[in-house]
Design brief:
single chain; alpha+beta; Uridine Diphospho-n-acetylenolpyruvylglucosamine Reductase, domain 2; Uridine Diphospho-n-acetylenolpyruvylglucosamine Reductase, domain 3; Uridine Diphospho-n-acetylenolpyruvylglucosamine Reductase, domain 1; 3 domains; five-stranded antiparallel beta sheet; four-stranded mixed beta sheet; 8 helices; 27% strand; globular
């Protein structure tokens, strides 16, 4: 199989048994059977077409900041999207999905554009941020999307299609791309605002916000950021109304009030600094982290009747394992 890949992907380096721990912020996970890095849509189309023709399963990811890879690794072809092209014309920014979200936002600010500052310190690629509608302070990146270019995998062909903002079905930490894995985000066009505010002051505000995050969150430990989504408040949680913030109950508050701050399973830990961060260590396995995630969900449900939903995507685990 490796020979067929190399014969058809002459200008793309193909690695075998590449440790996924090197490519995720949890710093755990077994090997990718085959591994490539791609930074443009032409090569991405070529790689996907080849995988399809070889009937080879594939998995696409960005900087690995929101995934938990099984200790057994990932079968088939793993495609890591990396930094590609960014074009800024007027107030629109067209960017490859593998590009770093922060880098793209800083470039737009330096061009006098505004709107995405709230997301500048979210560790994600553009594609990953769109898929999960990443956000902060009541805003999401989907709010500023004009259109998305996707590769649609279906039948015997792969087609290039344009999707409008409305077709992406953005909701809190959600988009259609979570439901439709056959839609691969290739490029995104953001429609931003123009700003006459001092650029240096805006960049300083972003730097200050990052320092605030570091003071409240365990940046020094391997993690995937917030492990669970905040819970959308409804009347059925009336007994928790005093905890509601911007229409949501913070997952960290539920975990802390359940007495789980500092809870450990082998090498995995519920952070003492922020309860919605499950962190790893040099001794952690992916299974340790998954077991702790399941324990937190179980105890929060038993204590408050609230079903926590992970933000973290689990990859390579048995389907029977929650």
């Amino acid at each position: 199989m490796i020979q067929k890949l190399k014969e058809n992907l002459l200008n793309i380096e193909i690695l075998e048994n590449e440790p996924m721990a090197k490519h995720t912020t949890f710093k755990v996970g077994g090997p990718a059977q085959y591994f490539v890095e791609i930074n443009n849509k032409a090569d991405l189309h070529k790689v996907l077409a080849l995988a399809k023709s070889l009937k080879m399963p594939f998995f696409i990811f960005g900087n690995g900041s929101n995934i938990l890879v099984s200790d057994k690794g990932i079968k088939g072809l793993v495609i890591k999207l990396t930094e590609g092209q960014t074009d800024i014309i007027g107030n629109q920014v067209k960017v490859f999905s593998g590009n770093n979200l922060r880098t793209m936002i800083l470039k737009s600010i330096n061009q006098g554009l505004a709107g995405l500052e709230f997301a500048a310190n979210i560790p994600a690629t553009v594609g990953g941020a769109i898929r999960g509608n990443a956000g902060a302070y009541g805003k999401g990146v989907g709010d500023f999307i004009k259109e998305i270019e996707v590769l649609k995998i279906g039948g015997d062909e792969i087609s290039l299609e344009i999707m409008s903002k409305e077709e992406c079905q953005f909701e809190y930490r959600h988009s259609i791309f979570k439901q439709r894995p056959e839609l691969i985000i290739v490029e995104a066009t953001f429609k931003l605002l123009t700003s006459k505010e001092d650029i240096k002051e805006r960049l300083k505000a972003i730097k200050d916000e990052l320092e605030e995050r570091k003071a409240k969150q365990p940046y020094e430990c391997p993690s995937a950021g917030c492990t669970f989504k905040n819970v959308v408040y409804t009347d059925k949680y009336e007994n928790l109304k005093s905890w509601e913030v911007h229409g949501k109950i913070p997952a960290g508050k539920l975990i802390e009030e359940a007495g789980l701050k500092g809870k450990t399973i082998k090498g995995a830990n519920v952070s003492d600094k922020h309860a919605n961060f499950i962190t790893g260590s040099a001794k952690a396995s992916a299974q340790d982290i998954l077991d702790l995630i399941e324990l937190v969900k179980k105890e929060v449900k038993e204590k408050f009747g609230v079903e926590l939903e992970e933000e973290v995507q689990k990859v390579g685990f048995n389907k029977s394992k929650k």
